[in-house]
Specification:
Low-confidence stretches: none
Number of domains: 2
Oligomer: single chain
Distance between the termini: 63 Å
CATH class of the largest domain: Alpha Beta
Radius of gyration: 24 Å
Bound molecules: uridine-5'-diphosphate-xylopyranose
């Protein structure tokens, strides 16, 4: 089939490349001509493991191409995806749908034959109705159907998540459109990935419900971790103990500094707004968002307490800046709030991250970036592990100990074990494992 993918960002580029890898003919469209030029010479604007190779092989096989000309991309398209950004609107948390509606208007002008228009971006309930209205009003004679097909891709694992999804969710009650979507996803369907058909609004809401539930699960174990520090429990054992219950499941029960990224913070806020706007507030998710915000600042206090109550004039090494490993994405990364709070307390920050430094430079100030974890530890009064990159999991701890001004480690991702660290002479603090040290 012929697919047009509008938006060559995290979602659009991964989805477009994977569809072309299934054998479909895909044209990725982006209004940013520089991004299109870069993609045409094989330069991928985002860090996503495996994406560069996937794009290159499908461009070489003439199944994947890039253009800024949406009308051209739609000439042969059976399906056009809207995979543009839906950022949180400044100040009020509603999703900014201006890029979605602009794409809808351009699609309306470009359609030449029956086309399935798919919202792949995460959009509030009812957006598909609005997209349909815009296209119908712009081109009353156009033959089309609007379908919701949310993605469930994790950054850093996006290609695997696309090719081996737990489910494919299609929101449509139009039989012809459902046939087209079944044909489009046939390669996955044959691999046993279930296709779930719901109404369009149900599919839109399901996407938010999924992310809000995952954010709730993470926040739940984070609060259990805080309680563990008061009662002397081990949150990793609690997570194992509840996670073995198949009704709970073991994933997303790793306590840490709070969730970040381009999705959980934005999607929880958008769901909260939708629910409030419809007079049916989701109070659990409102609490999750508030607790998560407070947690990032609380992590800075944990560091300050580990250094006796003040970090003024202290040098602090930070390992990991990105919101999670295997990405360069700094959006809503806990490191941003943590570093700002430590700097407010007078600390001097040195930081190392395998991939995130370029993005970090755009959001952090007065940070010295170093190219290895050991340089971050050198002469530091404390070393704080904020992101659980694999590169931090087997450090030469003896060497770290000798390089530091003070052997204080605050491990916000529970990468190391308290007993081992203390045996090596570190004053070791982590999240939810035993009584919090004064
Ligand atoms: C998420 C959803 O997982 C994905 O399905 C959706 O399509 C987009 O949003 P992503 O934002 O890439 O994906 O990251 P994810 O791996 O879900 O982690 C989100 C945040 O939760 C990160 O800050 C991560 O550090 C945190 N997290 C996750 C935890 O703190 N503990 C966990 O156990 C899992």
């Amino acid at each position: 089939m012929h697919v047009a993918m509008i938006g060559a960002g995290y979602v659009g580029l991964v989805s477009g490349a994977c569809f072309s890898d299934f054998g479909h003919s895909v044209t990725c469209v982006d209004s940013d001509a520089r991004k299109i030029d870069a993609l045409r010479i094989g330069r991928i604007p985002i860090f996503e493991p495996g994406l560069s190779e996937l794009v290159a092989s499908n461009v070489a096989a003439s199944r994947l191409s890039f253009t800024s000309d949406l009308a051209l991309a739609l000439q042969e398209a059976d399906v056009v995806f809207i995979a543009v950004g839906t950022p949180s609107r400044r100040g009020d948390g509603h999703a900014d749908l201006s890029y979605v509606f602009q794409a809808a208007r351009e699609i309306a002008h470009a359609i030449r034959h029956y086309t399935v228009v798919v919202t792949k971006s995460t959009v509030p309930v009812g957006t598909g109705d609005e997209v349909e209205r815009i296209i119908r009003d712009t081109r009353p004679s156009a033959e089309f159907a609007v379908v919701s097909n949310p993605e469930f891709l994790r950054e850093g694992a996006a290609i695997a998540d696309f090719k081996r999804p737990d489910r494919i969710l299609v929101g449509s009650e139009d039989e012809r459109a459902k046939q087209v979507m079944t044909e489009l996803y046939r390669p996955l369907y044959l691999n046993q990935s279930p296709i779930l058909f719901t109404s369009r609004r149900t599919a839109e809401l399901t996407k938010y419900a999924a992310n809000a539930f995952l954010a709730t699960k993470v926040t739940f174990i984070n609060e259990i971790a805080d309680l563990c520090e008061q009662v002397g429990g081990d949150v990793q054992d609690v997570a194992r103990g509840i996670g073995l219950d198949k009704r709970i499941g073991s994933k997303f029960l790793h306590a840490g500094p709070g969730y970040g990224g381009s999705c959980f913070p934005k999607d929880t806020l958008a769901l909260i707004k939708t629910a409030q706007d419809h007079g049916s507030p989701i109070r659990i998710v409102e609490t999750v968002a508030a607790v998560n915000d407070q947690r990032k600042r609380a992590m800075a206090r944990k560091v300050i307490q580990a250094l006796g109550g003040s970090v003024r004039g202290k040098t602090i090494g930070v390992l990991g800046l990105t919101f999670k490993p295997n990405t360069d994405d700094m959006r809503d990364a806990p490191s941003i709030s943590i570093i700002a709070a430590l700097q407010d307390g007078g600390a001097v920050i040195k930081a190392h991250d395998p991939e995130g430094v370029e993005q970090a430079k755009m959001v952090l100030e007065n940070v010295t970036y170093v190219d290895t974890p050991y340089r971050a530890a050198e002469d530091a009064d404390a070393l704080v592990i904020v992101t659980e990159w694999d590169a931090f999991r087997a450090l030469d701890l003896q060497r770290i100990h000798t390089m530091m001004a003070q052997p204080v480690v605050i491990d916000l991702r529970n990468i190391y074990r308290p007993a081992e660290m203390r045996a090596l002479g570190f004053r070791y603090h982590s999240v939810g494992r035993g009584l919090a040290e004064a």
